[in-house]
Amino acid sequence: LDSPLEPKPGDLIEIFRGGYQHWAIYVGDGNVIHLAENTDAGACSVKSVLQDSAKVMKEKLQKVVGNDKFQIRNLLDDKCTPRPIEDILQDAESLVGKVLPYDVATHKCEHFITLLRYGMPRSQQVQEAVMAGTAILGVLAVGALVFGILAAASSEDENEEKK
Prior knowledge:
Blueprint: E1 12-16, E2 21-28, E3 31-37, E4 53-60, H1 61-65, E5 69-72, H2 85-95, E6 99-101, H3 109-118, H4 124-162
Antiparallel strand pairs: 1-2, 1-5, 2-3, 3-4, 4-6
InterPro entries: H-rev107_PLA/AT (IPR051496), LRAT_dom (IPR007053)
Protein name: LRAT domain-containing protein
Keywords: Hydrolase, Lipid metabolism, Membrane, Transferase, Transmembrane, Transmembrane helix
């Protein structure tokens, strides 16, 4: 994981909120731009899952992080080429104050910052949840198949005994 002490403009900041991660993009001078709850409350929280919009905010990194831990994590640099820094910063600044759609599966803070840095919205948190859900559904499907086979075999045994 990336962890230089001082973020550079365009760096993605992962903030550990306990149970989930919040994301922001560093824009220089100690500031980040991020999606926040569409209230006066500041940084995203678990409550934001229930909201359908979020506000783009520019705030001091330390204010957004609060007492939580954070790291610099340009999570897709090994798969995608980052956009030019000037474009990232210009686009990020142009969105400050705007209210955007928010959806935990398709429009969350991680999608927002990866769209700015890489030009495409991605969320590893959502992908991991989908993969976990797919694995659970796979196990359930196998269990249902086995149960169906056993039930059919049992039914055949009963029919044989009745003859």
